[in-house]
Amino acid sequence: MSFLYISKIWRITPMDDIKIRKAVVDDIKTIVLLLQKLDMFNYPDIDGETALRRVLNNNNAIWLVAVKDAGVVGSVRGCWDGSRAIVHQLAIDKKYHHQGIGKLLVDSIIQEFARLNIPTVSVTTTEKNRAFFEKRGFSKTEVFLMLKSLDT
C-alpha cells in the first residue's frame, strides 16, 4: 500500500491496525507516561506537558503519533527552520517494538518534511539506535548534540 499525505485526521498505512495521525492535546499525558516508561523523560522542561503543549502550537513542528486499538503506542516529533529539519524524538511502547511502528513513524515524518521541500533531515539518536536510523538512510556525521539549560 502506498503512503499518502497525512491529513488532519488519519493516514493510511501498510499495517491495517496501525494509524498515523498528527498529535493532539489529548495525547500529551499518554506521551509523557510513555517517555517515563521508556526512561526517556530526562528533561521535563523539554518533554513535560507544558513543553509538549508548546510543540503543538509551533507551526514549525511536526508531531505524529501511532495509534493501535484506539490507544497511542508511539510518537515522533521534529521541526524545521525553513532549510533543514531534525527529528528530535522517537518513542515506541516496548510492547510494540520490532513491529515496524518506528519505521512507519520515521518514514511518515520524513515524508512530511519532503512535502515541505526540506532538502535534508537530521536525527538526534543514541549509539544503541544508530543502526535503526542507518537503515532509514541516515548517516553518522561529526556533529554531536550539546545542551544548555536556560533556567530563569
Short characterization:
With 152 residues, the protein is of the alpha+beta class. The chain has helices at 28-37, 44-47, 49-56, 101-115, 130-135, and strands spanning 18-22, 61-68, 71-80, 85-92, 121-123.
Domains (count): 1
In terms of DSSP E residues, the strand content is 15-25%
Question: And the CATH topology?
Answer: Aminopeptidase
> What is the arithmetic mean of pLDDT?
88
Number of helices: 5
The largest pleated sheet is described as: 5 strands, mixed
Structural class by secondary-structure content? alpha+beta
Order of strands across the main sheet: 1-2-3-4-5
Specify the helix fraction band: 25-40%
Regions with little confidence, pLDDT below 50 for 5+ residues: 1-10
CATH architecture descriptor: 3-Layer(aba) Sandwich
| End-to-end distance | 49 Å
**Rg (C-alpha, Å):** 15 Å
User: Helix and strand string, N-terminal first?
Assistant: EHHHEEEHEH
Find the count of extended strands (DSSP E, 2+ residues): 5
CATH class: Alpha Beta
Q: Looking at this structure, what is the CATH superfamily?
A: Gcn5-related N-acetyltransferase (GNAT)
The backbone outline, from C-alpha atoms, is: globular
